[in-house]
């Protein structure tokens, strides 16, 4: 996001910016956590409202809560716009659009009722939960995972292409084998079945009945069972690699013999015995 | 637990303590195993009693066994209270509470019948099974697993947060897409479906029927299939790391400073610079 | 494939060859991508045609598209035959046969209608998608996966033999235990159930009902749950191994014999003994 | 097995022994493969016989095949007894008992018909398939897997104890929560459900219906999804460890400086430059 702090702005804007957008001051951290709690509560309210029996009894209260949080998020959105140096850049950034979309649906229900379904967008605000990982210890750990996944992304894409091809070929095959019966009513549906099978989910809403179909399905299952090893292997190897490389040795070169890779707590060179 | 051995207590209490609470004497080990067998047998009795057909035929015998074991556990509980130096500390420790709760339900049935369901608490006593791992070889192995999981706990929490967010967003989406039909009757139920799917359990009690729903479900499945690689990778890397560390060093002790863990090809001690 | 470039052929054939069969010129890359897009579109058309409701409305259009792509693939096939030095070698290579089979089914529908099902073969052309991985970055990554799998193939075969034996033994056992009822109507069907179970797919179309059957199934599930660790471990270890091997060596080339891959702390070339 | 070769036996017995029990001569290998083929064919015959429709048409032929193979196995069993130095030791070894049990059922059908179900034991002979891994390349690979699993057996036992305890506690909990309805009719059945869930098999024959039940089930699923990382991590780490240690370096010590861990193809010592 190209939203930089307001630089030489007036004092209160700078303070407000650090409270609203940053998380390294106590006030900023408190603000972030307050927003997170508000998001979780509003999402819980939306969820409960979708439950028939709860809606019948507490519907009015839940709708009041919805309007309350919409107000809170509206204020928060305005505050963000005011405080940021380049409001447009924020407004059109991904987080900015999600923040805006979280307000619209409730307002739109005034005009037409069906728009309430758009509240689903509000759950996207949950993505802000990951901001909490900027607080303290979690940061490094989250970054570790993201780095490992990023480093593996090409391998994972190759793997996914292989899986998608496999699923298309086997799905089409099963459509032909089962002859369009037993739930395999079309090729896309058969591919859906193949995905359900190769990922070992196995709902059982569609399952082969013919002998040939069950044989092919068995092969697909064992394949799926075996190839889960591939993404796991990729990520494990990546993580093991980055883990081992970094903290294993002291980043110091002996000034006498130039030996490296000393123990992290070494006081003398392992090669020539010189004091490090 | 802050239950220390009774220090300068009288001889018999000291002996009883080591028998009941410790496992490094033959008597202590025998006591531990006897308690474990009693727990397993009483849990099996509770299980069998819940089976209608068995209850009809052997109900009286099973209830007699239940009372017998309740008596045994009561005696054991009293013995623990008598023998320990600070009975209150034990009584309010986690294991102490579980030990107490294992006795109460059977007694409570005298007053009102429904309380028999509380016998479920007795299965918690099964946790004492892990005491057996204090015996011999298992200790190190169990500790190895626990250590690896502890070291990975922040990474696993980040991972779980990501999974929970994914499940909430996709669950809500499917609720909207399937329009409240086909089992997706509320957002919490749709999230339950998303958990069932992303973990590749796939009961099939709820499964999408619309084309868009099945497409989204397929994406979720492949995601779930791929991201299982993350926790596996984390734990594998952690375990591989701690495993490798052990034999990666020279099995030699410096004769001057007693330092160990030298590089496999070290010629001088990393700690004092002495020739190895 | 034993299809070599046409060597000292006339200029246009050489150019055409590099466009059609190779991917390292801009024209060649464009041709490859165009073919891929055509394959994906034709496969999508075949898929959509299999959907009853779409077929009723857009059937004529889809059949026109099918004929159009059949024409395109026919032209492509002829071009490949003309351009290659040894047409027969190409025609009887795996890719050549698949390319040919992708054209036949549509033509065959002129003679008898049922042959449309053969269009399933066209999905096999999707395998050409992997050609895209010859472009740029992906190549190495794809090769990394293939190499790791190849190196593990014997271990994976041993593993698969063990799984197949397990599945046969447990399947037969369940057939006997369930007495041919509850879906376990024959041994092959019971083995199918065992595959569904051990791979953790779990459709639920067949599931044990007797107490002994459910107990055996539980053991099989826990076994399946535990032994997934084996292929994963094999591939992880393989990948971690080949990954580690790369940076484990000194990035220095011997100035005498050009040998690389010296130990990180080597002082002399392992190949010619020269001081590094 | 304490079956030693017949030592100073007469020549033909020695030859017969090496043919029947060993696999390092061409004749021995041929015999082994012939036995394997006979086992697979007889198991296939048993399987096909269990299929109603096939049994009706080819029942007589299949029963003839069954008798033929029973005869073959009887001859093989007698040959083994004759050839081995200590027949009783073989007869009471595991493989000997399985070999014997593979013959009995067919003979027993002469007396009472139900005993045909005992043919399930014949599938156990499939275990002999693993003998094939003694041939050539597979041996080392199979041993690699077995060694890794053996080295991890204590960790896997700790893990399995944890899973069994979890499954017992959660199963009992769900029995209480669902109140004995929705398939959770007894504690053992609920534990069966918990196993089906935690292993991510998920048949769907039993699934929670109450809100609390579905919440607990979701937690169990995510736990099951996360803890699959544990056995995988154990085996991966074990395999990665043993892989790296063994074949990475040349097993040669420099006769000048005693340096070890040379590249597998090193000709000169990396430490002192001496010819190895």
- Strand percentage of chain A lies at under 5%
Helix content of chain A: 55-70%
Give the CA-CA distance, first to last residue of chain A. 44 Å
* DSSP strand count of chain A: 0
CATH topology (fold) name of the largest domain in chain A:
Four Helix Bundle (Hemerythrin (Met), subunit A)
Main beta-sheet annotation of chain A: none
Number of domains of chain A: 2
Can you name the CATH architecture of the largest domain in chain A?
Up-down Bundle
Oligomer: homotetramer
Structural class of chain A: mainly alpha
Output the helix-strand order of chain A: HHHHHHHHHHHH
Low-confidence sequence ranges of chain A = 243-248
| CATH domain class of the largest domain in chain A | Mainly Alpha
Q: Largest interface: which pair?
A: C-D, 64 and 68 residues
Quick recap:
Chain A has 276 residues and is mostly helical.
Describe this structure in words.
Chain A has 276 residues and is mainly α. The first copy, chain A, has two domains: 7-134, Four Helix Bundle (Hemerythrin (Met), subunit A) (Up-down Bundle); 149-241, Helix Hairpins. Helices cover 64% and strands 0% of the residues of chain A. In chain A, helix 1 (11-20) runs antiparallel to helix 3 and helix 2 (26-50) packs antiparallel against helix 3 (52-83). The first copy, chain A, is flat, with a radius of gyration of 27 Å. Chain A starts with 10 loop residues before the first helix and ends in a 31-residue tail after the last helix. The relative contact order of chain A is 0.06. At the C-D interface, helix 9, helix 10, helix 11 and helix 12 of C face helix 2, helix 7, helix 8, helix 9 and helix 10 of D.
């Amino acid at each position: 996001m190209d939203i930089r702090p307001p630089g030489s702005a007036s004092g209160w804007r700078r303070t407000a910016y650090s409270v609203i957008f940053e998380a390294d001051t106590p006030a900023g951290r408190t603000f972030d956590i307050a927003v997170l709690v508000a998001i979780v509560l509003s999402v819980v309210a939306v969820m409960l409202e979708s439950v028939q029996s709860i809606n019948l009894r507490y519907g009015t209260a839940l709708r009041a809560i919805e309007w309350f949080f919409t107000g809170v998020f509206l204020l928060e959105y305005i505050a963000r716009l005011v405080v940021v140096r380049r409001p447009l850049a924020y407004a059109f950034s991904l987080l900015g659009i999600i923040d805006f979309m979280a307000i619209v649906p409730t307002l739109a229900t005034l005009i037409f009722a069906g728009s309430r379904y758009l509240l689903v967008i509000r759950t996207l605000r949950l993505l802000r939960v990951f901001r909490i990982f900027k607080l303290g210890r979690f940061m490094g750990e989250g970054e570790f995972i993201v780095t490992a996944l990023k480093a593996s992304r090409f391998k994972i894409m190759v793997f996914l292409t292989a899986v998608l091809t496999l699923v298309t070929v086997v799905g089409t095959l099963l459509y032909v084998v089962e002859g369009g019966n037993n739930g395999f009513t079309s090729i896309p549906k058969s591919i859906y079945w193949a995905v359900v099978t190769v990922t070992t989910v196995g709902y059982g809403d569609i399952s082969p009945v013919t002998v040939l179909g069950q044989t092919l399905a068995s092969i697909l299952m064992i394949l799926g069972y075996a190839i889960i090893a591939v993404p796991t292997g990729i990520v494990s190897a990546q993580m093991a690699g980055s883990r081992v490389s970094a903290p294993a040795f002291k980043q110091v070169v002996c000034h006498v013999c130039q030996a490296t890779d000393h123990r992290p707590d070494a006081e003398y060179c392992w090669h020539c015995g010189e004091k490090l």
